[in-house]
What we know:
It is a single chain. The chain is built from 5 helices and no strands. By secondary structure, the chain is mainly α. It has one domain: lambda repressor-like DNA-binding domains (434 Repressor (Amino-terminal Domain)).
Amino acid sequence: xxxxxxxxxxxSKGFGLALKQWRAKAYISQEELAFRAGLHRTYIxxxxxxxxxxxxxxxxxxxxxxxxxxxxxxxxxxxFPKNVHEPFEISQSAPQRxxxxxxxxx
Length: 106
């Protein structure tokens, strides 16, 4: 039986892989995602590597920065294989390209 710590490690790595795939689907860098979410690039890197424990607030920021809902964000984790080295696919509803609205009104 897998220890709870190993299960958390697997979830962190799975979440990181999902984030990386969403980011790739949006054609943006870690730096751009960090900017959009108001987070640091090294924090994004740590999430994608599965070494950071992400708060719900930051998960929400990431989803908003990727222009996806929280349910869409977590969808790949439901399909996540038991072996973290096996590939998994994000649904076709993933954005093909996300554009940052930089216009200001004022």
